[in-house]
Amino acid sequence: MIIPNIEFVLDVRGQVTDVTKPVWVVDRREQDDKVWLTPFIGSLEASNSSSLGQQTKRSSSRETFTFKPLAQIAAEIDEQELHRPVGKKGSRGRPRDVTATDDWDSFLLANNARRDMLAPDVCRHKVLVHPDSQSTFNRLDSLLCASVNVMSNPKWVHLYHGLMYSKPSQTNESQSLLSEFQNVLLVEKAGPGLENGTSDLVRNTEIAKVMASNAVETFRHRYLTEAATACYWRELILMYSEVSYSPKAYNETNTRRGTPLKEFL
Q1: Domain co-membership, 109 together with 34
Q2: Structural domain of residue 108, as residue ranges?
């Protein structure tokens, strides 16, 4: 298959102000329906010899899925604490009143994770909290983890948004916390909703195990694989070329125009 030549604008600021041009973005607001959604750009920066998925799989295969009490931690988180820095391994930020029996490595605010944290460092945490929907996609590799992703009601649309299933089953009260395919936990906001949501996980570890397993099957094994991502990029380019003009790949001096994407990133 011959990939056609295309020309587009790639927004890396996370805020599209002009939707009249053919802009490509990783996430968008609901009203910005004129832009084109791309897969996670960060996946292009992963090492060829050790992709995010491979790193995550190796890391999580050595771990067991266990929980220690987290309700006290969740109850202490507020807006100020949500912006505390989180370092690597032993230097992680902590809420004010964490008891000695709490295991902080079981809990991570995903939007505070450093950009240079590798997938195994992120996946060491069994509960990954995303206080807003956009932060979920700033740390999209967290969806590859065998962890429970807890997030607030989404305000941004992302390519994989439709795959995040959080609607609980109402057919059986004893199973009302979990539906068959649930792979994330949706809470109202990062305050009381977060506390209640994580408390549910604390009370029923089996629910958390199923939710994490569903996430692995959906994202790591299917839609966030390198093959699936390559397929989507190919279809995106082909569909875009049908409604866009075909630019000249070379200028008058027979040198290639533009900048390779990896160099641009």
Answers
A1: no
A2: 52-223
